[in-house]
Amino acid sequence: MNCSMIKSFLDSTFQNYFKCKQVGEYLAISTPFYYPDGDIIEVFVHSRTNKIVLSDMGETMRYLGSYDLDIKSYSKRQLIIDDVTHMFNIKFLKGVLYTPINSIDTLAEHIFNLSQCIIRICDLLYTIRGSSPIAFVEEVKDFLDFNKFKFEENYPVETKSDNRYEFEFGVEIEDCIKLIKVMTPPSKPSQTPNIERVLRIWFDIANFSDFQMKSRITLLDDTNYHWKEKSIILLKQLSVVTYWTNREGFLNELKSKIA
To answer: Which of 22, 45, 126, 158 is least enclosed by beta carbons within 10 angstroms?
Structure first.
């Protein structure tokens, strides 16, 4: 065995993990990497002033924005982005991560670098203080452990529409799985929670998977936040809505039979 054999093996193995499609003037490449919520990371190839550019088209900043994570108002977060982009030799301008490509032979290397840069920047979610998604998930995990449920964290679901999602928990109930999607309040009182992302996920699960209504649970952290009724009404169209302040109700919903 030598390096040439290893390189040949990697080339033949990883080519099936990338998919490419034409989207207007861009080439969209689906990578084998994922955002924290399970969405596939896509990167885009396009020409700019006779040069080939690989970029995220601003999707990373839009993803962080869906969690109400403010980059511009926090110098520390901006410094983290500067450090990460410097580490992977990625440029960051007007919310877009990108890198020029001098030779098509280096495309794979650039895709890996940009993907890893995106993943590291998404770690900024861990800097959210207060009712952050990360802290709340830990609370729910402790609750499930205490009540002796069998569950899997970051439970993956692939739908018939070729999308893949990761739910905070997949709880086993009588040989069936109940999906738990948790929602926390926005990081600032002046902001409103972004429920469109969760609604999109539940819509896909409801229409393109075998998970019935009783298997789809949205858990709202209402400890110090009043969720608007219109948001609850929309969520109830696609999932069973439960509240963290009513843990008994959440517990009963978990234990209830699916059919």
So the answer is: 22
Q: Which residue has the higher pLDDT, 104 or 55?
A: 55
CATH architecture of structural domain 133-255: 3-Layer(aba) Sandwich (3.40)
- The 3-state secondary structure of 61-74, one letter per residue: HHHHHCCCCCCCCC
What is the DSSP code string of 225-239?
Answer: ----HHHHHHHHTTS
Sheet containing 150-158: which strands, arranged edge to edge?
150-158, 164-173, 176-183, 216-220, 240-243
Structure tokens at 23: 């989207």
Structural domain spans, the chain: 13-127, 133-255
- Comparing 227 with 51, the larger pLDDT belongs to 227
pLDDT tens, 199-244?
Answer: 999 999 999 999 999 999 999 998 878 899 999 999 999 999 999 9
